[in-house]
Design a protein that fits this description.
about 240 residues; mainly beta; Porin; eight-stranded antiparallel barrel; four-stranded mixed sheet; 2 helices; about 10% helix; elongated
């Protein structure tokens, strides 16, 4: 009986070792990702814009930029059945892309330009190993530029014939082509850390503001040339996939 038990244990051990060895030599099948996979991305970073000079009655105002930016997007990914690790992806996003301030203290001029954008992008994503993705997308942005201008009329109009603050707000919308490229580090199956570069193909935008005193009333005219404005944006973000 002892010999039978020992023989049975020896056979069981040999079978276990054989199964473990065979398992170590056979690659686990890849888990099939659902098609399509939905995702959302929250990004923050910095934007360099191409706002040029703003002149007020022929005099150039001082310029300063604040490029802090943010973007929220939702999208979908469809994994290719023909090419391993390749997927097709699209996203719809909305963002804020910083502001540019213009001042001329001696004339009482203080103005801010704010840039917002709604974009639609589509492209490809390629997975490298199990933890990294690189992507390239192209599309377009509807760019909104809001211009807020405040003028101290007692400084702007010589002689003190006009006083008070003149407040103006102008919003202009433009369409511009756009590209986005970058990569994602997938630290879990659902969460990823992204780094991306976004470029909007625009121009160097200049503004000319003219104000005239017509019998104690100030008339203002603004001319914008070169729109839409070119944007270069660098962002880090957090991506969540709805598996």
């Amino acid at each position: 009986m002892n010999k039978l038990i020992k023989g049975s244990l020896l056979l069981a051990t040999a079978a276990l070792v054989s199964n473990v060895y065979a398992g170590g030599m056979t690659a686990e099948p890849m888990q099939q990702a659902p098609n399509p996979t939905l995702f959302t991305t929250l990004e923050g970073g910095y934007t360099w814009n191409q706002f040029g000079n703003t002149t007020v009655n022929g005099v150039t105002a001082s310029q300063s930029n604040s490029g802090a930016s943010g973007r929220l997007a939702v999208g979908a990914t469809h994994y290719s059945t023909m090419v391993n690790n390749l997927s097709y992806t699209a996203e719809l996003g909305g963002g804020y892309y910083g502001q540019t301030d213009y001042t001329r203290a001696s004339s009482g001029i203080n103005a801010q330009n704010y840039v917002y954008g709604l974009d639609l992008l589509a492209g490809v994503d390629y997975q490298i190993g199990n933890m990294f993705d690189v992507f390239f997308k192209a599309g377009g942005m509807i760019q909104d530029v809001r211009m807020d201008r405040n003028t101290d009329l007692s400084k702007f109009v010589a002689g003190g014939s006009v006083t008070g603050i003149d407040n103006e707000t102008t919003t202009a919308s433009y369409f511009a082509p756009e590209i986005k490229l970058g990569g994602v580090y997938d630290f879990t199956n659902l969460w990823g850390l992204s780094l991306s570069y976004l470029h909007v193909f625009g121009n160097n935008v200049n503004m000319n503001i003219s104000k005239t005193d017509t019998g104690g009333t100030v008339a203002s005219n603004t001319t914008i040339t070169g729109s839409p404005v070119s944007l270069n944006n660098l962002m880090v973000g957090l991506r969540y996939k709805f598996n």
